[in-house]
């Protein structure tokens, strides 16, 4: 049987994260969500946009995931740095072509040893609620979430 590189997350893991994150959003009665899962190389593994999600939700979710992966820091830490180091975050935005969105809702996906396997970005409700759904999805896939706050 041929073996193929996954560059972190497999498609099965990405789909499990996405399904569980969306289910958590429905359980909580949140606004329609969009979930983006990136592998460790920053490539899209999964994108799902719920019916009724507004126009730019896929781009915002991608920006949340891309930003945390770009710096290797969870969205909460990126939000703190955006406040403290505006010049740096402006440069990050420029360097990334505007793709880095430094707010909660971007969560790193790690294995049990802390190795970054990818990232999840969710947009649709308040950022803190988006983050709750990302964490639920990551946990459902048997992986660890890094939000940027101490555990």
From TrEMBL:
<protein>
    <submittedName>
        <fullName>Heme-binding protein</fullName>
    </submittedName>
</protein>
<dbReference type="InterPro" id="IPR052517">
    <property type="entry name" value="GlcG_carb_metab_protein"/>
</dbReference>
<dbReference type="InterPro" id="IPR038084">
    <property type="entry name" value="PduO/GlcC-like_sf"/>
</dbReference>
<dbReference type="Pfam" id="PF03928">
    <property type="entry name" value="HbpS-like"/>
</dbReference>
<dbReference type="InterPro" id="IPR005624">
    <property type="entry name" value="PduO/GlcC-like"/>
</dbReference>
